[in-house]
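Progress against Task 2.4 (sequence-to-structure conversion) is shown through the following example record, which the project officer requested during the mid-term review.
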Amino acid sequence: MALPVILDVDTGVDDACALLLAALHPALDLRAVTCVGGNAPLPDVVRNTCSVLATAGRMDVPVAAGADRPLLEDAVDARHVHGADGMGDLNWPLGTQAPDPRHAIELLRDQLAAAAASGERITLIPLAPLTTIALLLRTYPEAARGIERIVFMGGAAASGNATASAEFNIFHDPEAAAIVFDATADLAIPMTMYGLDVFYRPRITRAEAQLLRALDPTGPAGLGGRLISFQCDRFGADDATIGDAGAVCAVIDPSGLTTTPLPARVELSGRYTRGRTIVDHRDWSGDLAHDPHGQSEVVLDVALGVDAPAYAALWLDTLRTTGKRG
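Structure tokens generated for the chain above:
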């Protein structure tokens, strides 16, 4: 049976790559998509998300708008990476479906409650700042009964990208990330961190992207190829990461991801380290006993290794197959 999933996105070039995979792969049952401000302002994120789902022929999937800004700070987008419209400035056709009238946390609450009532659990795949997920888990903690696990793209055990210390999704709303970390511990929700340590490794070449574009110019393969080509052009490279789509790959094929359970915290106050995910690799009780902060009670399955060729092939093959059907 297909695994039920919900994506939370800030679409975003690589979110679009992830949406295509989640919408099209037969191993997943995409129940809903929620949107949060991040890579682009929230109205652009909703528009881009509806456009991608329409291209994938999945206008049946409800889309709801969530938080438009971080809990405490002003929003800071990443259009310098993703283009002025947030999705590569491709002038891709807009979707015609109207967003769900519910707020994202209400859509999530209802989907998770329905799943729990039927004996199911849904895997949440947040690929964006964790603002909406934080609001959900604190407003409706009973929603945890319908969550199988959370596999999120964010954080890093090593270096950052938004700053030298912090990865963008966590940096955008550190308080929300800290709330989600604590809530998953409180509510016993397993959580996997697909962070920068693996994020950049699954890659698609410019030549492979061109073949996708030729296979299905106006369909999912064509869109996926154009998204990769945009990244190659933006960074002056011959290949580009599938980015957030790697977290979806990890749900489809967990065997391709090497994880280690490690205590983790989010730094909220450091001048140069705000938004950093503090991943604790220590294993000597002597150090731990003399740490005035103690060890975090939040334990994440931290991704430290990935079968990059397998995940790249998984993404490519899904879009190629869809293109051939078209």
